[in-house]
């Protein structure tokens, strides 16, 4: 056998070895790999375990399945009665449809956070300051449902939304709000306050 043929055989074996190494992916138990094949309309959800993804033919997208918290920090919002508040909260999220998640053009994590912020802002705007401070955890199920309605299209499910902190700044909005409460108080209540 000539040196040229031997060199070509060694190069071929090296190319096959490299392809073999890049063709195998290990998918952990808390992830799935969505495999898209060139020229085919279908896609396959693979894993956990060893998955074959052929370079140049297949494209693999890893999808996390574990539940995580998406945080909303220092969201500025205005209540229904015009008081500016700052809200901190979080949502427990998970992927229920790996294919939809993999097909999302924008990163699903940032889209989920954007939807969460928008719905929390809307939730705050629909309530007066007193209603917001008195709202129970079970009332926030409505907020969870509204966020879910937006996130389900990209395969993300929100299990629960928590508002951990609602801060009211001492500013003109709060003073105006307090003044409106005094104006709405009944004459008997005002008389009681004066006599006390």
UniProtKB/TrEMBL annotation:
Where does the record place the Band domain? 22-185
Would you say which domain of life the source belongs to? Answer: Bacteria
Which Gene Ontology terms of cellular component type are present? plasma membrane
Q: Which InterPro entries match?
A: Band-7_stomatin-like (IPR043202), Band_7 (IPR001107), Band_7/SPFH_dom_sf (IPR036013)
Q: Pfam families recorded for this chain?
A: Band_7
Name the keywords, alphabetized: Membrane, Transmembrane, Transmembrane helix
Enumerate the transmembrane spans: 6-27
Q: What protein family is recorded?
A: Belongs to the band 7/mec-2 family.
This chain's protein is named Band 7 domain-containing protein
Organism, by scientific name, is: Pseudonocardia bannensis
Organism lineage: Bacteria, Bacillati, Actinomycetota, Actinomycetes, Pseudonocardiales
